[in-house]
Design goal:
Layout lengths: L5 E4 L3 H13 L3 E7 L6 H5 L2 E6 L10 H11 L3 E3 L9 H9 L3 E2 L4 H8 L1 H8 L17 H11 L3 E5 L8 E4 L5 H16 L4 E5 L5 E9 L5 E13 L2 E7 L6 H17 L4 E9 L5 E7 L6 H8 L3 H9 L16 E8 L1 E2 L5 E2 L6 E3 L6 E5 L14 E9 L2 H14 L1 E3 L5 H8 L2 H5 L6 H5 L6 H22 L9 H17 L1
Parallel strand pairs: 1-2, 1-4, 2-3, 4-5
Antiparallel strand pairs: 6-7, 6-8, 9-10, 9-12, 10-11, 11-14, 12-13, 14-19, 15-16, 17-20, 18-19
This protein binds ligand MV4.
Length: about 500
């Protein structure tokens, strides 16, 4: 047991703020690191101390583990929270952190390493009774043998890179004629992308739902699950809408999936927060795919339905405390939905649309949570993921959460960049989404860019009205976009950063 008094957050944007807020609630001091592109970001102002670690490209800043560890030494930092992306699933970094006598708020380097290899993960999980998609258990070395196995499994099959993840390095093979060509491509892609050409094959489940289970494990071998998140609405492996609970599984399946997720975590001695990913086929059978060894983007929906602050639990676990929550303490209350607001133009093939947030007014009110890392007037840098915010609504049931989401999307006013909000509203009101009859093919099955024309037109009219109203207001003394209370907040932030620099 070692208590944490100061945390460095090795990340940026909304997740950096998310983590620092919990730290502050726990009376833990916070250190931000930032790149030259993020000098004016809210996460930098919010932190008690902030250090610039390099130029804009992440390879020269947020991925510089050596610099980040040096900052920890200079500022007497007890622990690093890596957030998601960047260094969060880098076993080498976690090891370096530990080696420097700093706590890594996350799993052990060994667990990161095992789960970072899909084949090693499946192998570890195979000690337990966990359903897995039929396929090869080891990397393919003999092509003729692999073809025989593919024929046994039955086409279509999927070739996956063992070192891949999030859909990278996957290839569908429809029939034996295509096998060699696709295998060559998969191996060379895996080699160039991951520096590891190991691939394996699985039966291809053509219309799956993506369901994942949140788990928490402590350093004393206790592991609990916090139910599922349904993440099927995605495009090109980028999730757009997530919700909890899933309307597609029975309570029996939920209990069984939870048990499997806990066993997967046990198989690698897991501690910290983690997510075990499954796919569900049309018949309702589920299969374990892989485990993500980080706090995920979509974690808020789990927080909403369970009332658990996952970041707080991660910090307690990192301090060596035993989990204070028992499985029997947990239940699902209500329903939560998250939409990701990306600076992307959905009517133009989701092209990233970087620029300045001329107008940025977020929704509010009962059941609405916005996790963001930007403010009005800020530029969205080209160097990083174009996610502006996560909009989360919570209701007594799914219908109420959807109603609140539609209302919240209507209230959200952003100008200067195109966003995925009109697309999210389209999904929220689509019969297939409302009825729950959707799978990972939702976007390609139900969406064409022309469908957004009306939405966007309506939106820009509303925005024009708001902007002209605010221009009128600005000419009155003491009025404008920013409320008095927001001004006060901004000035206390300013005072804090002045004290520290
Ligand atoms: C699959 C699959 C179908 N069959 N495996 C994509 C991300 C990676 N985590 C695993 N993925 C998939 N694996 C078999 N055997 C379909 C997908 C998949 C998918 C999974 C989850 C969420 C979205 C997806 C979109 C396309 C394909």
């Amino acid at each position: 047991m070692r208590s944490i008094k100061k945390i460095l957050v090795a990340n940026r944007g909304e997740i950096a703020l998310r983590i620092m807020r919990t730290a502050r609630e726990m009376n833990i001091a916070t250190v931000a690191v930032f790149s030259e592109a993020d000098r004016k970001s809210p996460h930098v102002r919010y932190a008690d101390e902030a250090i610039c670690i390099g130029p804009a490209p992440s390879s020269e800043s947020y991925l510089r583990g050596d610099k980040i560890i040096q900052v920890c030494k200079d500022l007497n930092v007890d622990a690093i929270h890596p957030g998601y992306g960047f260094l969060s699933e880098n076993a080498g970094f976690a090891k370096m952190v530990q080696g420097a006598g700093i706590i890594f708020i996350g799993p052990s380097p060994e667990a990161i390493e095992v789960m970072g290899s899909k084949l090693a993960a499946k192998q570890a999980a195979s000690q337990y009774n966990i359903p897995m998609v039929p396929g090869t258990e080891t990397a393919i070395t003999d092509r003729a043998e692999a073809k025989t196995r593919a024929r046994e499994i039955g086409y279509p099959i999927l070739i996956k890179a063992s070192a891949g993840g999030g859909g990278k390095g996957m290839r569908v093979v429809d029939n034996e004629t295509d096998f060699d060509e696709q295998m060559d491509r998969a191996v060379s892609e895996a080699q160039t992308s991951f520096g590891d050409g190991s691939v394996f094959i699985e039966k291809y489940i053509t219309s799956p739902k993506h369901i994942e289970i949140q788990i928490l494990g402590d350093q004393h071998g206790n592991i609990i699950h916090l139910f599922e998140r349904e993440c099927s609405i995605q495009r090109r492996h980028q999730k757009v809408i997530e919700e909890a609970p899933s309307i597609s599984i029975s309570n029996e399946t939920r209990v069984e999936m939870g048990r499997c997720a806990i066993d997967v975590a046990k198989s690698c001695g897991y501690y910290g927060a983690g997510t075990v990913e499954f796919i569900l086929d049309e018949k309702g059978n589920f299969y374990f795919l892989e485990m993500n060894t980080r706090l995920q983007v979509e974690h808020p929906v789990t927080e909403e339905i369970t009332g658990v602050d996952l970041v707080k639990q991660m910090i307690y676990i990192a301090e060596g405390k035993p989990l204070a929550i028992k499985q029997s303490d947990l239940s699902i209350k209500g329903h939560a939905i998250e939409v990701r607001v990306y600076a992307e133009d959905a009517s133009n093939n989701f092209l990233p649309d970087v620029g300045t947030l001329h107008t940025y007014m977020k929704p509010d009110g009962n059941g609405v949570r916005v996790d963001d890392g930007f403010e009005q007037g800020m530029d969205i840098p080209i160097y990083y993921d174009p996610m502006i915010a996560k909009l989360i609504t919570y209701g007594a049931d799914r219908e109420e959460a959807m109603q609140k989401m539609t209302r919240a999307i209507d209230e959200y006013q952003i100008s200067g960049v195109q966003t995925t909000l009109p697309f999210c509203k389209f999904v929220m009101n689509h019969p297939a989404f409302v009825s729950g009859e959707f799978d990972t093919n939702f976007v390609s099955t139900h969406f064409q860019p022309e469908m957004l024309v009306e939405e966007i037109k309506e939106d820009s009219l509303k925005l024009a009205a708001i902007i002209s109203a605010s221009l009128l207001k600005k000419s009155e003394p003491g009025a404008g976009f920013v409320s008095a209370s927001e001004n006060k907040k901004a000035s206390s932030w300013k005072l804090r950063s002045l004290r520290n620099h």
